[in-house]
Task: inverse folding
């Protein structure tokens, strides 16, 4: 029995493996995909923050990212496509002491589910949303999504995507999220730290994980290897401090990474408790 | 002090029925002619420590009541045709995940925006068949303000007993009508709560075979870990693509309604035992049918009414028994195609004298309209 499949009681650091279901590895995601790296970062943070299977609810949508609840032993809800945040909103509003962590792809979060994303952030629901953005619909074979670049080649944009991509983090910021961060699997230590920070914040926290999809997005856009996609992500990203000093022209096509928004506004449940106090005269 | 009752609107009575049943979580999106339910909940819930959530659309409303129900709460939403159409996909999630909840559909005239403030009973087939896949749910249809209250309590009881969504197929007329009703004291009407798991938490399987097809239901936060999925799942709730498992899960999820048929299917009969002319009606139109039958009785015609309190699953037995005894069966309903008349014909056969009385202009069907069929 190795550390790859069973909890390592002797590991000198948090592994998060106690949250993994027995006998489910190796996972289903393609070689080079970023979901596994993100999930490991997340489970390590669960352990460091003392989450238990009992007090944690993992909510997923549909797509490659939406498959990850099947690997976990926490409470879970695998929802319909795009509706994970709306379901999670109900869970958190009904039971405030749960840790509700929502995993979505770019389809779930801001394409089919864009309305719920905007309003979950606006309400500042105390949820942690982890979004794997791999710039296309992977599960259905690599079609363009709301985050695919203009001009990119996909299975439904053979002559280049006529649409423009949505900036997930900017959307969360203007909608009112407390905490917004972006990272990539190439920056795995930063990614782990940012996920840990997002989990420990009250209010709506978003971590966008720019992720390689060598099978579909990469293979259609001259990056067939996972390593090529990682190199591309490294090239496409700059620390947010540096990004803020860049000219608007230089920012084009470049993603700022790191902690982008850090606020401490009251979350929905806190505001609703005030409503309850006014209603009852307390 | 004696309870002399209150003058309530049907929508208010549905909200009060939900509170009586122990519901403390409402999520919805305002829509005419159901909005008074939302308004009542927004005023009452914060006082009772409950939650009123106004969601961004009806898709989200349905999603939120599913999520909240999984924490152990009794939850509900209210809407009308356009919103009910948006709820269909997540109603399917509630059916697949066996999540108790109540959806009040105050039916209005369509299609699309239609006559937005006018009544209809044209969502009957959408309620039953509006989702993809092999599935079943329960629909109850109130004909008075008192039934708006009592059937809402019943809807929550059935939702909890069977782990299923229950639709209240109301219409604009009963929803906006005001009648004096006596709200029962706590305990007067039984209130049923979902069965919770017992025994070894590690052995708990939320979708396991169970007596009468309904496994006990845990809650998020409980030591009985609950994995709920829109995807086909095994007894443990985890994805399972085996054909044998899919066949068993679908058979159990549908079969539980057969097991509980006697608890679910309710009708009321008025002068129907010797009826040669039988009106089969539901919702507000039941009142017009009763007036029409009384008129016929006064003229020496043996007429009666079978009220379908439960619309789905369809009350086949009562329709067969009373319908086959009658010479003529008349089905008045506020829709164009005769959605319930078709079901009645299915039960009584092609040779039976089943007559339709349909109205689709946003007006109630009157006793006079009904009597024209005789």
Result:
């Amino acid at each position: 029995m190795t550390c790859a499949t069973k909890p390592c009681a002797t590991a000198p650091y948090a592994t998060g493996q106690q949250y993994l279901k027995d006998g489910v590895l190796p996972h289903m995601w393609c070689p080079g995909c970023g979901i596994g790296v993100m999930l490991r970062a997340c489970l390590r943070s669960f352990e460091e923050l003392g989450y238990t299977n009992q007090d944690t609810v993992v909510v997923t949508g549909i797509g490659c990212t939406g498959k990850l609840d099947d690997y976990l032993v926490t409470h879970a809800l695998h929802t319909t496509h795009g509706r994970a945040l709306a379901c999670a909103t109900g869970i958190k509003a009904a039971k405030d002491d749960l840790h509700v962590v929502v995993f979505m792809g770019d389809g779930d979060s801001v394409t089919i589910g864009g309305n719920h994303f905007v309003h979950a952030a606006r309400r500042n629901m105390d949820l942690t949303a982890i979004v794997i953005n791999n710039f296309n619909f992977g599960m259905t074979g690599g079609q363009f999504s709301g985050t695919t670049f203009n001009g990119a080649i996909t299975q439904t944009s053979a002559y280049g995507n006529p649409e423009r991509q949505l900036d997930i983090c900017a959307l969360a910021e203007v909608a009112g999220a407390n905490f917004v961060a972006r990272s990539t699997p190439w920056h795995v230590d930063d990614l782990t730290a940012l996920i840990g920070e997002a989990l420990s914040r009250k209010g709506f926290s978003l971590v966008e994980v720019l992720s390689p999809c060598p099978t579909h997005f990469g293979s259609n856009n001259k990056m067939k290897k996972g390593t090529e996609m990682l190199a591309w992500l490294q090239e496409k990203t700059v620390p947010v401090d540096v990004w803020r000093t860049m000219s608007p022209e230089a920012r084009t096509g470049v993603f700022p990474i790191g902690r982008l928004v850090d606020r401490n506004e009251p979350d929905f449940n806190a505001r609703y408790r005030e409503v309850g106090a006014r209603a009852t005269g307390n | 002090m004696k309870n002399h009752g209150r003058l309530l609107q049907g929508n208010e009575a549905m909200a009060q029925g939900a509170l009586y049943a122990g519901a403390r979580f409402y999520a919805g999106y305002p829509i005419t002619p159901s909005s008074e339910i939302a308004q009542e909940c927004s005023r009452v819930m914060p006082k009772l420590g409950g939650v009123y959530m106004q969601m961004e659309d009806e898709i989200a409303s349905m999603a939120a009541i599913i999520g909240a129900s999984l924490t152990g709460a009794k939850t509900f939403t209210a809407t009308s045709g356009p919103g009910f159409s948006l709820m269909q996909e997540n109603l399917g999630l509630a059916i697949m995940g066996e999540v108790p909840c109540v959806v009040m559909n105050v039916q209005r005239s369509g299609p699309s925006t239609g006559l937005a403030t006018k009544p209809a009973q044209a969502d009957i087939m959408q309620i039953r068949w509006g989702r993809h896949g092999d599935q079943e749910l329960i629909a109850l249809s109130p004909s008075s303000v008192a039934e708006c209250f009592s059937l809402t309590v019943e809807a929550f009881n059935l939702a909890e007993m069977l782990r299923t969504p229950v639709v209240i197929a109301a219409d604009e007329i009963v929803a906006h009508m005001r009648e004096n009703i006596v709200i029962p004291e706590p305990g007067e009407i039984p209130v049923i709560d979902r069965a919770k798991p017992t025994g070894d938490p590690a052995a708990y399987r939320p979708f396991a075979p169970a007596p009468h097809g309904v496994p006990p239901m845990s809650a998020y936060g409980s030591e009985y870990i609950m994995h709920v999925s829109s995807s086909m799942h095994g007894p443990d709730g985890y994805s399972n693509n085996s054909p044998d498992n899919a066949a068993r899960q679908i058979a159990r999820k549908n079969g539980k309604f057969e097991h509980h048929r006697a608890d679910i299917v309710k009708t009321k009969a008025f002068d129907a035992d010797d009826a040669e002319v039988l009106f089969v009606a539901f919702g507000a139109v039941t009142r017009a049918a009763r007036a029409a039958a009384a008129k016929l009785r006064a003229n020496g015609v043996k007429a009666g009414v079978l009220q379908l309190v439960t619309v789905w699953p369809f009350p086949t037995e009562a329709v067969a028994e009373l319908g086959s005894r009658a010479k003529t069966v008349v089905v008045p309903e506020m829709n164009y195609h005769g959605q319930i008349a078709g079901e009645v014909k299915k039960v009584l056969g092609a040779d039976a004298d089943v007559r339709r009385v349909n109205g689709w202009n946003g007006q109630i069907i009157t006793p006079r309209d009904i009597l024209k069929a005789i």
User: Anything to note?
Assistant: Strands of chain A lie at 56-60, 75-78, 99-105, 128-133, 179-183, 205-210, 237-239, 255-262. Chain A has a mean pLDDT of 95. The first strand of chain A starts at residue 56 and ends at 60.
